[in-house]
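pinging the channel bc i need a second pair of eyes. not urgent but kinda urgent?? the chain im working w is below, pasted from the shared doc
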Amino acid sequence: MDTRREIDPLGEKAIPKDAYFGIQTLRAVENFPVSGLKTSPYMIKAYVLIKRAAATANMQVGMLNPTIGNAIIEACDEVLSGKHLDQFVIDVFQAGAGTSFNMNTNEVLANRALEILGKQKGDYKSLSPNDHVNMAQSTNDTYPTALHVSVLMALQPLLKALDELSTAFIELGEKNAHVLKSGRTHLQDAVPVTIGQEFNAYGSAIANACTELRRRQENLYFVALGGTATGTGANSHPNYKRLAVADLAKLTGFPFKPAGDNFEALQSHRRAQTVSSGLKELALELIRIANDLRLLASGPTTGLNEITLPPVQPGSSIMPGKVNPVMAECLDMVCYQVVGADAAVALAVQAGQLELNVMTPAIAYNMLFSIQILSNYLPAFTERSVKGITVDEKRCEMYLEKNPSMATLLAPKIGYFEAAKIAKQAQAENRTVKEVAVEKGLLSKDELEKVFSRKNLLNEQ
């Protein structure tokens, strides 16, 4: 393999001649052969946008030679267009704070910028990863900034998928608003609801979780960029922070602002934790809903079987004709992963010490992975499961007729204890509450019709 030689403060190494990454990236590849998982494209894009904004700001304040700065910007634009992505080779589990990935980015952009200027890769005296691409920056302010930028970019497709899932449930609810069924509390029969109300509630829960995520994403608009190593802004021009953050906002379309306290922004990742917690809270709702769908579809002969989930694949390798709720099962597993990822984020968030939280790469990986798997799967779940749900109206009616909790509606007329006797008798004799009430003559026929009317069952005004 053809190589070139590069030197850093620890010595000299041979780098693949065609590689845009350099010696510090190679050291990290050797040091951290952990998972084989590479950095999210959202993080790559976020970091390169930061480098572009920094180059622009440094040129504006007169610190960066325009020839060098414009070459860096051109290199950034190439990566943002999708080129050279195979050069970002750092494992997601890496050196603390993300120095390995920051240097991977610096080296790729520096070496490509050198080529743009007609020079050789590795000619860092002409254009340096540290002195030029990383000018007025530190891993300690750029990685937390990239965390915020990447999560915001990744969240937008997820928010759209949640809107579509919520809408699908609400449309299902409207379609089945007329179908009365037994309510259930404690997994036992309870007073009636409509199956449309159940579906509407699922849609509302998802919409509310999505609204909360939208609200919490605003916490990420405040970024650490400009704080450099410890929050003081060492080695940066007094106007750099304001200009760099303004350009980052322009490039991304998000209303980024400099953190009110740069020292806090380097020490604390509470803002990111609010979004991670929002993802967990969403996952908990989705788990609950998926499990309800599995329960409502259970059977077909020994379960509730009030709804049918679309069959998408055979359910058993040995039992012919069996169909399983596989889409809901997969959603459960996706959401368990999200809950676990939030636990990892929480541990990393509390691990900030003194002027820096060095566990930021773990926070970024887990949050971006959670968003990725939810964004990938929810559209499939919406299209291949929710939109194809059908309701067995006759079975819902059958369960409702024999529901002993219907006696609850008699209580205002005959009292709790008399109603309880009727419920017990109806259950023991496998009869309906209405039949037993008629037999006992406790209410007139007209009164019973009013008590068991749809209007009274659902407390409609």
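so The longest strand covers residues 188-194. and The radius of gyration is 30 Å. — does that match what u expected or am i reading it wrong
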